[in-house]
Specification:
307 residues, alpha+beta, four-stranded antiparallel beta sheet, 7 helices, 25% helix
């Protein structure tokens, strides 16, 4: 694969280029993406999608997204935002792109490619990590830490996603301090009898009977509500059909907060199997769109029936 294509001429044959809106996370798209060199920017599409700056030996330098790929890349090249940014342009051998049907598809794809390639110049390198979460089923006296991957299928309630146990415990300690909750009852402090917090006026006495355990649990659940993770509201996979202002439509497949890829037709779904678990970026991206519904996006349940 040559990296010296110019203008609108790519060295890849047309048959090797990805179909519009199609992205399979199981396949590395480096070899199939259309691309141009820095003097061929006019060939870039003025449409939504993701773009990638590649250096020598197809080293990914930067992954970005835009609702207008051509305009955004021109601004990168002609008006570098910083010295570091200018250094990236000097190292660029080619710029590749993958069109999407709109901003939702671009955000999902950008997040996936950044985690896949860990580009040199992306400021926040969002690697996939196994996270932990506070799980507090009804009837239990206190929350317990569990693998955040259970968020994918569980119907119980989870609070927060953390990179490690220490971060999760520090967050819960902060809530306990703010709300005068008992660290001992929450399982964050060992011992029996009156806790240290009670002795300095930071606990209302659930540890020594001055506050009932039910009242304490109720206050703690209310305080943790701001950390609550929204349960996946569908029984299985959902195709988010996105239509742009040009009437072009793509389907973004998501299952329990993990992005499985994009296709142009529902008939193509079987080619997108994916075993990855809960993804925090997908969760945040989709929740923004769900919180502010758009007439250009429709959720189409694929598996099972909604309760």
């Amino acid at each position: 694969m040559s990296s010296n294509s110019t203008g609108g001429d790519s060295s890849r044959p047309d048959s090797s280029r990805p179909e519009p809106w199609r992205y399979d996370p199981q396949q590395d798209p480096v070899e199939t993406l259309p691309s141009v060199s820095l003097d061929g920017l006019a060939a870039l599409p003025a449409r939504p999608g993701v773009y990638v700056f590649f250096g020598l030996n197809d080293l990914p330098l930067y992954v970005g997204k835009s609702v207008d790929i051509r305009s955004r890349i021109r601004s990168h090249v002609q008006q570098p935002a910083s010295r570091r940014h200018a250094q990236m342009i000097v190292q660029t051998q080619r710029i590749a792109w993958l069109r999407t049907s709109g901003d939702l598809g671009a955000q999902l794809l950008e997040a996936d490619l950044i985690k896949r390639w860990v580009p040199l110049y992306n400021r926040q390198l969002r690697k996939r990590v196994r996270m932990v979460s506070w799980n507090w089923p009804e009837g239990d006296a206190r929350p317990t830490l569990t693998d955040g991957q259970w968020v994918v299928t569980a119907r119980t309630q989870f609070y927060g996603l953390f990179r490690n146990r220490r971060d999760a415990q520090m967050t819960l300690r902060g809530i306990a301090t703010d709300e005068s909750l008992c660290l001992r009852i929450l399982g964050l402090e060992a011992g029996s009898g009156r806790c240290f917090g009670y002795q300095i006026g930071r606990c209302r006495g659930a540890c020594c009977g001055e506050e009932t355990l039910d009242d304490h649990a109720s206050r703690a659940r209310d305080a943790m509500e701001r950390l609550r993770i929204e349960n996946w509201p569908w029984p299985g996979r959902v195709a988010f059909r996105e239509t742009n202002r040009h009437g072009e439509t793509g389907l973004h497949i998501v299952d329990h907060w993990h992005y499985q890829g994009s296709v142009g037709r529902l008939e193509e779904l079987d080619v997108l199997p994916d075993t990855r678990g809960f993804d925090i970026d997908t969760y945040r991206i989709l929740n923004r769109f769900i919180a502010a519904p758009s007439p250009t996006i429709e959720a189409i349940p694929i598996d099972g029936e909604i309760d």
